[in-house]
Amino acid sequence: MPPLLHDIMRVLLLLAGPAAFVCLINAGIALRREGGTSFWVGGGFSKWMLWAVIFLALEPTLTWFQFFGVPVFFPPGAAIGTPWLSNIQTGATTFVNDLLVARIVPVLAAFFVIRAVLDMANGTGPLPSILSAMFLLAISTTHGLIDGWTPGGNRFSLAVGLESMWNYLAGRIMPIAAGLAICGAVIQFAFNQSGALRLVACAGGFLTVNALWVLITRMM
Looking at residue 22, what is its pLDDT? Predict the structure, then answer.
């Protein structure tokens, strides 16, 4: 393989991590557009989260070519021999990490907090905007989690990442959502508002999502 083509491939693979950061930023924005406390299946939030997993699992997934007997010419850790391509990779990574993630994302989250105050002024709940702001402030941690869920050298990294995301959602996020639903039910009951029973039922569903999934799979 020509060295220049090899270096171009290495640059693209090394930019997969920053691209995942951009996907997570777009996911946080899409989450607020879709309601904050919920998202559309196949909508913007789920699409950008899927692309974040794909980018972080891209290099391990390339071992599929080796599994089929096709040699991979850009091994992990290979250096970029062309200086100007190396500068492009360094500049793009610095732009994403030092500007977008470190500076723009906190400002964007602050605007969502202001949006939460405006939502309260309009008589709607502030929770959607607050949750979107929290998601944006935690994208570095989310990026690290997904990166850990897509182990290197495993051609099934993409599937492992999606499975781990599901387990984290069902085992960690759903119990928190159930607690928030109970808090909301208590508040609505205290103010004699309708919908408290619905929130209690949602809390029960959140806590039993794993059991419901097992039941559905066994029924099929």
Answer: 94
**What is the reported pTM?**
0.83
Residue 125 identity (one-letter amino acid): G
Give the DSSP letter of residue 193: -
Positions in the chain short of pLDDT 70: 1, 36-39, 41, 70-78
Who's near 76: CB < 8 A, 6+ residues apart? 59, 152, 153
The whole-angstrom separation of Cα 38 and Cα 128 is 8
Cβ 27 vs Cβ 143: under 8 Å:
no
Q: Are 72 and 66 in contact (CB under 8 A)?
A: yes
CA-nearest of 177, 144, 178, 150 to 163 is 150
Whether 195 contacts 188, CB under 8 Å: yes
Tokens at 102, concatenated? 């470190």
d(CA 196, CA 186): 7
**8-state DSSP, 37:** S
Write down the pLDDT at residue 143.
92
Question: Under 8 Å CB-to-CB from 94, ≥6 apart: which residues?
Answer: none
| The pLDDT of residue 4 | 79
Helix then strand count (H, E) for the chain reads 13, 0
Asked if residues 64 and 183 have their Cβ atoms less than 8 Å apart, the reply is: no
As a whole number of angstroms, the distance between CA 85 and CA 70 comes to 26
- Cite the beta strand spans of the chain per DSSP E: none
